[in-house]
Specification:
single chain; alpha/beta; Spore Coat Polysaccharide Biosynthesis Protein SpsA, Chain A; 10-stranded mixed beta sheet; two-stranded antiparallel ribbon; globular; Glycosyltransferase family 2 protein; Nucleotide-diphossugar_trans; transmembrane; glycosyltransferase activity
């Protein structure tokens, strides 16, 4: 009986793995085509035309901050230096208990002002709005609000306070390239369909040379966990999201860098304050809104690195982050289970949601079951391990091929690294990633699922940061 069950499981895993490999090959081909089309595009509006135009849409840069006193001044200065003729920076102090607000008031000469605040989407109580008495900082608006233990709630307050039709959502620890707004706004200007959101590549700032909030020189991270995350980001952003963008199936625009059509975001209800994966959940509701209204739309991804962010440098902080991500994924799939195989929602219901369920949610569970099966087989059955070794080797080889192609394409297109040594280190990290880093992610995902089903409360906290005024030091 046990042997029969294990054989059935083995066949299931074999078919599942083959399906996953085929789907990833298709995604890789779509990504290559999309990147090539983007790089060879001749119909794009030149940046200088956008900068001189009187008809470009205004953009509100919305950045929530909770206990970010170490970096907030430099980050705001960086945001105020972006190149775009019509934009504002909306910084939300989400009930910080440190000196975040005090530093902002002192550095940018802020005073509390009368402000017409209309709560178009739900947010906790706003205590006040601050503007600068110095004309140099006229683009800055600081929103001081009560903490609701939710990043989504903070961003909603920022959206309510913003004045432009597009908003760019970013994190306070992010460093944006000077032309980020232009690059993300272009699809809204050029799109044949109504573009409701755009995103772009995010890279890791750990170990980069950063001076007063500005990126001076890019370096490969020195810590083990930041290095693994660099590899992960290259693969995910270059292959995964570019492919989904090509077929208008993008479900995830990173909370660290995403531009949105404010009207559609507000009509969809804004960010859901109880969600731990608020960016994915908002995109899902925006897609549903457009489907329900029978309106053609597009969500686009830009294959350029426009944002650098500090990532967890220790296992403990990484696990906490990935637990939150895992819970956010299952929350979104559960909140919107009506989407699954619903003809009203087109490819979202028949392709995107099933893919995320099978290959994002289910894989950690299958890996845990696989470990249990191996242990049972070892103790109770005289199992032939040749098939297992063949399958594992095939999956590992496929992973290496995809990862090496990602690294090669990334270097050919962007040339982010200072020398060949950094690329070689990245390749070596790829070889050991499945054995050293992947198990940590699987553990965090399973822990997140467990917390979800136990309905354990989890809140938006602050990640331990090293600050951006000097080059970060790694052990």
């Amino acid at each position: 009986m046990l042997e029969t069950i294990l054989n059935i499981y083995a066949y299931f895993v074999g078919i599942f793995s083959l399906t996953y490999i085929i789907s990833y090959i298709i995604l890789a081909m779509l990504s290559y085509y999309a990147i090539k089309k983007y790089l060879n595009s001749k119909n794009s509006v030149p940046n200088n035309v956008i900068l001189k135009s009187n008809y470009i849409p205004g953009v509100s840069v919305v950045a929530p901050a909770f206990n970010e006193g170490a970096t907030v001044v430099y980050n705001v200065k960086s945001l105020l230096s972006l190149t775009y003729p019509k934009y504002e920076v909306v910084l939300i102090n989400d009930g910080s208990t440190d000196d975040t607000l005090e530093k902002l008031i002192k550095e940018f000469e802020l005073v509390k002002v009368d402000f017409y605040y209309q709560e178009k989407i739900k947010a906790s109580k706003v205590r006040g709005h601050y503007k600068s008495t110095n004309p140099i900082y006229s683009k800055l608006l600081v929103v001081d609000k009560e903490n609701a233990k939710s990043k989504a709630d903070a961003v909603n307050a920022g959206i309510n306070s913003s004045k432009y039709p597009l908003f760019l959502c970013t994190d306070v620890d992010c460093i944006l390239k000077n032309d980020t707004i232009i690059k993300l706004a272009k699809p809204f200007i050029e799109g044949k369909k109504r573009v409701i959101a755009t995103g772009a590549g995010i890279r890791i700032s750990n170990s980069c040379e950063i001076k007063e909030g500005f990126l001076v020189k890019i370096h490969f991270p020195k810590g083990w966990y930041p290095r693994f995350q660099e590899l992960e980001y290259v693969r995910a952003f270059l292959f995964g999201r570019m492919a989904w963008s090509q077929i208008n199936g993008l479900l995830l625009v990173s909370g660290g860098l995403g531009m949105f059509d404010k009207e559609i975001a507000v009509e969809a209800g804004g960010y859901f304050h109880k969600s731990l994966g608020e960016d994915m959940e908002l995109i899902t509701r925006m897609r549903k809104y457009m489907y329900n209204k029978k309106l053609p739309f597009s969500i686009q991804y830009i294959p350029e690195s426009l944002c650098w962010t500090e990532v967890p440098s220790t296992k403990e902080v990484l696990i906490r982050q990935r637990v939150r991500w895992a819970r956010g994924l299952i929350q979104t799939l559960n909140f919107h289970k009506d989407v699954f195989f619903n003809p009203k929602y087109g490819k979202t219901g028949f392709l995107i949601f099933p893919y995320f369920f099978l290959f994002e949610f289910l894989i950690p569970i299958l890996e845990l079951i696989g470990i249990i099966v191996l242990i049972l087989s070892f103790f109770f059955l005289n199992m032939d391990y040749h098939n297992f070794l063949y399958l594992s080797s095939a999956v590992y080889l496929f992973y290496l091929i995809i990862t090496f192609i990602s690294i090669l394409l990334d270097e050919i297109i962007y040339k982010n690294y200072a020398n060949t040594k950094e690329i070689i280190v990245l390749v070596l990290m790829a070889i050991i990633e499945p054995f050293c880093y992947h198990p940590v992610n699987v553990y965090a995902s399973l822990k997140g699922y467990y917390h979800f089903f136990r309905q354990k409360e989890m809140q938006w906290g602050n990640m331990q940061r090293q600050g951006f005024n000097t080059t970060p030091k790694q052990n």
